[in-house]
Amino acid sequence: MTATRPGHRNWLRYSDSDAVLRLICLPHAGAGASSFNRWVELFPAWIAPVRVQLPGREDAASEPALRRVPDAVDGLLAELSALDRTPLAVYGHSMGALVAYELARALAAAGTPVLHLFVSGRRAPHLAATRQQIHRLPDPDFAAALAAMNAWGDAGRSASFLRYALRLTRSDLELSEEYRHLSEPRLECPITAFHGTADPIVDAAEITAWRELTGGPFVLHEFAGDHLFHHRHRAAIVVLMAEAVR
Known about the structure:
With about 250 residues, the chain is α/β, with parallel strands linked by helices. The chain has helices spanning about 70-80, 95-110, 140-150, 160-175, 205-210, 230, 235-245; strands at about 10-15, 20-25, 45-50, 90-95, 115-120, 190-195, 220-225.
């Protein structure tokens, strides 16, 4: 279902339901709404997962990809304003965690705070980067750097996929790597973070630092796996999210 404004492609993918909570799901760099397709059926009926399709990917591949976090947040605020007042929580992985965080802050500033922020696969936004930026690298070096991180999983072995994904992932990583954190406003909602113990991009201390960004409770859950651990453990993650907002 969509709530489309005239002349505008809707960014949200969800099914109409009697759910008492909507969970906004933001994918990692280079991914789109379909990365959450296998998550949808795992949620209890009282949670409605809302998959976000940012410009530049999948059925929105003809649109210019966004390169700055505020552009993503402003677009999402406009999309969410068309929905009813069902309470919201937000989940994002990697780049999606960064957008989820700023979206939660924007919603709180607008007087509609989220019930919970869930993040995975991304260092806390206020921490300085400890790894070299890669979004400006030439294509061969950029592809090699992403392969070393297992950023695309098995799909990264496909030449046709790489032709599509390199451009999009470069834009997404520019959005992430050029981000600058402002200390205010501070969140008051609970934050739950998920971490892959073999993640080559984010270490445990970097994700534990999310606790510093809210006046509310903080919980960390660790899982075996690399940067894309969240897909392997999606059923367990959904259970933990449902328990956190019950």
